[in-house]
Amino acid sequence: GLAQQIVARPFGASERTFVAPYRMKTTFEAGRIKLTGNPLDLAIQGKAFFEVKTPQGIRYTRNGMFSLDNHRRLVTNLGYPVMGNTGEIKIPPGKMEINSQGEIKVDDKPVAGIKLMEFQDDEMPQKFSEGLYVSDKGTLSKNSVVQPGHIEESNVNAIRSEEHTSELQS
Description:
By secondary structure, the chain is mainly beta. It has helices at residues 2-7, 158-169; strands at residues 33-35, 42-45, 49-54, 57-61, 67-68, 74-75, 83-84, 87-88, 96-98, 103-106, 109-113, 116-118, 126-127, 133-134, 139-140, 145-148, 150-152. The protein has a 4-stranded antiparallel beta sheet with strand order 4-3-12-15, with no helix packed on it. Strands 9-10-11 form a 3-stranded antiparallel beta sheet, with no helix packed on it. A two-stranded antiparallel ribbon has the order 1-17. A hairpin with a 5-residue loop joins strand 5 and strand 6. The longest helix is centred in the C-terminal third of the chain and has 12 residues, at 158-169.
């Protein structure tokens, strides 16, 4: 009866199988660009990163979901100031426009330029935390452009990740 069910072996294989990751690798390939309509959202076309200021120092991101904080600073979704060519970016009230070179104008007057940094393929930044990267090897980007009102989606392909997991189980 009940005693036999408690001590009985469970149905199925007596062996346990564990899956190890195929490989852990950061890929810097661009994701798809998605229209948001928010003029503060910026997607990068090219290999550049936005430079942001954190309590731990300068970090880099491709996540361009930006907003204004209470001091009218341009900040990331984590509240870190986005850096311009001359420091933190503060945007005064008025009609704002960001062009493809990352120049910010308010009422047709230039107020700041978004700092875009690039890295050599063999010196890409290292993962830090919160989707940020760290490096001291960056140079100002000359070829990348920004798309206001857009964001870059993740470059991770969930189906491809599943394929690698399936290969391990075979």
